[in-house]
UniProtKB/TrEMBL annotation:
<comment type="subunit">
    <text>Interacts with PRLR.</text>
</comment>
<comment type="function">
    <text>Prolactin acts primarily on the mammary gland by promoting lactation.</text>
</comment>
<keyword id="KW-1015">Disulfide bond</keyword>
<dbReference type="GO" id="GO:0005179">
    <property type="term" value="F:hormone activity"/>
</dbReference>
<dbReference type="GO" id="GO:0008284">
    <property type="term" value="P:positive regulation of cell population proliferation"/>
</dbReference>
<dbReference type="InterPro" id="IPR001400">
    <property type="entry name" value="Somatotropin/Prolactin"/>
</dbReference>
<dbReference type="GO" id="GO:0031667">
    <property type="term" value="P:response to nutrient levels"/>
</dbReference>
<protein>
    <recommendedName>
        <fullName>Prolactin</fullName>
    </recommendedName>
</protein>
<keyword id="KW-0421">Lactation</keyword>
<keyword id="KW-0372">Hormone</keyword>
<keyword id="KW-0964">Secreted</keyword>
<dbReference type="GO" id="GO:0046427">
    <property type="term" value="P:positive regulation of receptor signaling pathway via JAK-STAT"/>
</dbReference>
<dbReference type="GO" id="GO:0005615">
    <property type="term" value="C:extracellular space"/>
</dbReference>
<dbReference type="InterPro" id="IPR018116">
    <property type="entry name" value="Somatotropin_CS"/>
</dbReference>
<dbReference type="Pfam" id="PF00103">
    <property type="entry name" value="Hormone_1"/>
</dbReference>
<comment type="similarity">
    <text>Belongs to the somatotropin/prolactin family.</text>
</comment>
<dbReference type="InterPro" id="IPR009079">
    <property type="entry name" value="4_helix_cytokine-like_core"/>
</dbReference>
Length: 216
């Protein structure tokens, strides 16, 4: 694991809002949870690869386009700063909702892997719970920008269900790995976007971002 950014910000609240729960607290919850989810997704794919990889290049054929590729996010902080915060929080919600179905099937299919691993199943279940919890927090944040954002979430459809049901073991393992790889990438995108928004709402001039980097 690499160094993660540590962002602190004073209480903030959008003008015109009574803000019974201010944005500082909401962003603190969201960034903490998203960082934990990102770290857990790294551990999940690392452990899966250790247990099921038969060679260093075994999972290379598994790499395919992620179903969330249609949800475009800023390429960097400069581009993100040119966007409205409400548009970025909308991206975060779209990504989170796009993982509801894949995570549900990951937790189910983990129990039917060739070598049952309770730890893998448990980690998948925890990530699914974190995803739902983060949706609730992010929806509350979104409501402070525009109440319609959380009410009309246009998420990406996941096409992997039928492949998961394949009787061919390599096909199922490859699909599982690719899904975990996409989850890891999107968890990182979500974490970075929320950290960026937290800094945007901060009045602290030296608010800095430090990307969490994981390697496997």
């Amino acid at each position: 694991m690499g160094l993660c950014w540590n962002v602190t910000s004073p209480p903030t609240c959008l003008e015109g809002d009574r803000c019974p729960v201010n944005l500082e607290n909401l962003y603190h919850e969201a960034t903490s949870l998203s960082t934990a989810m990102y770290a857990r997704s790294f551990l999940l794919i690392r452990d899966f690869k250790k247990q099921f990889s038969r060679s260093p290049s075994f999972f290379k054929p598994a790499m395919k386009t992620c179903h969330t590729f249609i949800i475009r996010t800023p390429a960097g902080r400069r581009e993100a700063k040119q966007m409205q915060n409400k548009d970025i929080i909308d991206m975060v919600l779209r990504l989170l909702h796009s993982w509801n179905e894949p995570l549900r099937y990951l937790t189910q299919e983990a129990k039917h892997l060739p070598k049952f691993n309770h730890s893998l199943t448990l980690q998948a279940e925890i990530i699914a719970e974190e995803n739902y919890e983060l949706q609730d927090i992010t929806s509350e944040i979104a409501s402070k920008y525009d109440t319609e954002i959380a009410e009309n979430v246009d998420y990406a459809l996941w096409p992997g269900l039928q492949v998961f049901k394949s009787f061919e073991e390599p096909t199922r393992l490859f699909t599982f790995y690719n899904t975990l790889h996409c989850l890891f990438g999107d968890a990182g995108r979500i974490s970075i976007l929320l950290q960026h928004l937290k800094c945007q709402e901060s009045t602290e001039e030296n608010c800095k971002l430090s990307i969490c980097s994981f390697h496997f």
